[in-house]
Amino acid sequence: MPAVGIPLAARMRYYCSIMQRIFLAAALLSLPAPVFAATLQEYMVAILMFINNTLIPSLFALAFLFFIINVVRYFIIGGASDDGRKSAKRLALWGIIAFVLMVSIWGIVNMLVYGFGFGRTLYVCPDYMGDHCAEPSRAPIIEDIGDYLQKNPI
Which residue in 12, 16, 43, 88 is a FRET match for 111, CA 20 to 30 A apart? Predict the structure, then answer.
Protein backbone atom coordinates (compact mmCIF):
# COMPACT_ATOMS: atom_id res chain seq x y z
CA MET A 1 0.00 0.00 0.00
CA PRO A 2 1.67 3.24 -1.07
CA ALA A 3 1.96 5.82 1.67
CA VAL A 4 1.85 8.88 -0.60
CA GLY A 5 -1.40 10.84 -0.39
CA ILE A 6 -3.08 8.52 2.11
CA PRO A 7 -4.12 9.98 5.48
CA LEU A 8 -2.32 8.75 8.57
CA ALA A 9 -5.47 7.23 10.10
CA ALA A 10 -6.07 5.08 7.01
CA ARG A 11 -2.46 3.88 7.00
CA MET A 12 -2.66 3.02 10.70
CA ARG A 13 -5.88 1.01 10.14
CA TYR A 14 -4.15 -0.86 7.32
CA TYR A 15 -1.07 -1.66 9.42
CA CYS A 16 -3.23 -2.66 12.39
CA SER A 17 -5.16 -5.09 10.19
CA ILE A 18 -1.85 -6.62 9.07
CA MET A 19 -0.73 -6.98 12.70
CA GLN A 20 -4.05 -8.61 13.59
CA ARG A 21 -3.51 -11.17 10.82
CA ILE A 22 0.02 -11.87 12.04
CA PHE A 23 -1.18 -12.39 15.62
CA LEU A 24 -4.00 -14.64 14.40
CA ALA A 25 -1.53 -16.74 12.39
CA ALA A 26 0.79 -16.98 15.41
CA ALA A 27 -2.12 -18.06 17.61
CA LEU A 28 -3.15 -20.72 15.10
CA LEU A 29 0.42 -21.99 14.80
CA SER A 30 0.69 -22.29 18.57
CA LEU A 31 -2.55 -24.27 18.75
CA PRO A 32 -1.00 -27.76 18.34
CA ALA A 33 0.91 -27.47 21.63
CA PRO A 34 -2.18 -27.41 23.90
CA VAL A 35 -4.10 -29.80 21.65
CA PHE A 36 -1.46 -32.52 21.75
CA ALA A 37 -0.69 -31.80 25.41
CA ALA A 38 2.94 -31.09 24.59
CA THR A 39 5.11 -29.44 27.15
CA LEU A 40 6.57 -26.04 26.47
CA GLN A 41 10.02 -27.56 26.14
CA GLU A 42 8.88 -30.06 23.49
CA TYR A 43 7.08 -27.30 21.63
CA MET A 44 10.14 -25.03 21.66
CA VAL A 45 12.38 -27.89 20.49
CA ALA A 46 9.95 -28.59 17.63
CA ILE A 47 9.94 -24.92 16.60
CA LEU A 48 13.73 -24.68 16.75
CA MET A 49 14.12 -27.91 14.77
CA PHE A 50 11.71 -26.55 12.12
CA ILE A 51 13.70 -23.32 11.89
CA ASN A 52 17.03 -25.14 11.76
CA ASN A 53 16.02 -27.93 9.37
CA THR A 54 13.54 -26.17 7.07
CA LEU A 55 13.52 -22.39 7.28
CA ILE A 56 17.25 -21.62 7.22
CA PRO A 57 18.07 -23.97 4.28
CA SER A 58 15.11 -22.43 2.41
CA LEU A 59 16.54 -18.94 2.96
CA PHE A 60 19.93 -20.08 1.66
CA ALA A 61 18.24 -21.60 -1.40
CA LEU A 62 16.26 -18.41 -2.06
CA ALA A 63 19.39 -16.24 -1.81
CA PHE A 64 21.22 -18.52 -4.23
CA LEU A 65 18.25 -18.56 -6.62
CA PHE A 66 18.04 -14.75 -6.46
CA PHE A 67 21.72 -14.54 -7.39
CA ILE A 68 21.39 -17.04 -10.27
CA ILE A 69 18.33 -15.26 -11.69
CA ASN A 70 20.17 -11.94 -11.71
CA VAL A 71 23.25 -13.48 -13.32
CA VAL A 72 21.01 -14.84 -16.07
CA ARG A 73 19.39 -11.40 -16.39
CA TYR A 74 22.84 -9.79 -16.64
CA PHE A 75 24.29 -12.08 -19.30
CA ILE A 76 21.28 -13.28 -21.29
CA ILE A 77 18.07 -11.31 -20.77
CA GLY A 78 19.39 -7.79 -20.21
CA GLY A 79 22.52 -8.16 -22.31
CA ALA A 80 21.38 -5.66 -24.93
CA SER A 81 20.42 -2.73 -22.69
CA ASP A 82 22.77 -1.00 -20.30
CA ASP A 83 19.99 -0.23 -17.81
CA GLY A 84 19.00 -3.90 -17.60
CA ARG A 85 22.61 -4.94 -17.09
CA LYS A 86 23.14 -2.30 -14.38
CA SER A 87 20.05 -3.33 -12.41
CA ALA A 88 20.87 -7.04 -12.76
CA LYS A 89 24.47 -6.40 -11.68
CA ARG A 90 23.31 -4.40 -8.64
CA LEU A 91 20.78 -7.05 -7.61
CA ALA A 92 23.30 -9.87 -8.11
CA LEU A 93 25.72 -7.97 -5.88
CA TRP A 94 23.01 -7.64 -3.23
CA GLY A 95 22.37 -11.38 -3.54
CA ILE A 96 26.05 -12.08 -2.89
CA ILE A 97 26.05 -9.70 0.08
CA ALA A 98 22.96 -11.42 1.54
CA PHE A 99 24.55 -14.84 1.06
CA VAL A 100 27.81 -13.73 2.73
CA LEU A 101 25.87 -12.23 5.65
CA MET A 102 23.85 -15.41 6.14
CA VAL A 103 26.95 -17.60 6.08
CA SER A 104 28.73 -15.23 8.50
CA ILE A 105 25.83 -15.19 10.95
CA TRP A 106 25.57 -18.98 10.67
CA GLY A 107 29.28 -19.26 11.49
CA ILE A 108 28.99 -16.89 14.46
CA VAL A 109 26.01 -18.82 15.83
CA ASN A 110 27.90 -22.11 15.44
CA MET A 111 30.93 -20.63 17.21
CA LEU A 112 28.71 -19.60 20.12
CA VAL A 113 26.91 -22.95 20.22
CA TYR A 114 30.09 -25.02 20.22
CA GLY A 115 31.90 -22.49 22.45
CA PHE A 116 29.29 -22.87 25.18
CA GLY A 117 29.21 -26.64 24.72
CA PHE A 118 25.69 -27.05 23.37
CA GLY A 119 26.75 -28.65 20.11
CA ARG A 120 28.90 -31.42 21.45
CA THR A 121 27.92 -35.06 21.18
CA LEU A 122 26.55 -36.38 24.43
CA TYR A 123 27.68 -39.75 25.69
CA VAL A 124 25.22 -41.71 27.78
CA CYS A 125 26.88 -43.74 30.49
CA PRO A 126 24.57 -46.09 32.39
CA ASP A 127 25.42 -46.92 36.00
CA TYR A 128 26.18 -50.55 35.27
CA MET A 129 29.06 -49.60 32.90
CA GLY A 130 31.09 -48.05 35.72
CA ASP A 131 34.35 -46.48 34.54
CA HIS A 132 34.15 -47.89 31.03
CA CYS A 133 32.59 -44.66 29.75
CA ALA A 134 36.00 -43.06 29.72
CA GLU A 135 36.31 -44.60 26.27
CA PRO A 136 33.89 -42.73 24.01
CA SER A 137 33.85 -45.58 21.51
CA ARG A 138 32.09 -47.84 24.03
CA ALA A 139 29.40 -45.38 25.12
CA PRO A 140 26.15 -44.94 23.20
CA ILE A 141 26.09 -41.69 21.23
CA ILE A 142 23.27 -39.18 21.10
CA GLU A 143 23.47 -37.37 17.76
CA ASP A 144 20.37 -35.19 18.02
CA ILE A 145 19.99 -33.09 21.18
CA GLY A 146 16.37 -32.26 20.27
CA ASP A 147 15.48 -35.95 20.16
CA TYR A 148 17.31 -36.54 23.45
CA LEU A 149 15.44 -33.69 25.18
CA GLN A 150 12.11 -34.95 23.90
CA LYS A 151 12.76 -38.40 25.32
CA ASN A 152 14.41 -37.18 28.55
CA PRO A 153 12.86 -33.88 29.70
CA ILE A 154 14.82 -31.82 32.16
Answer: 43
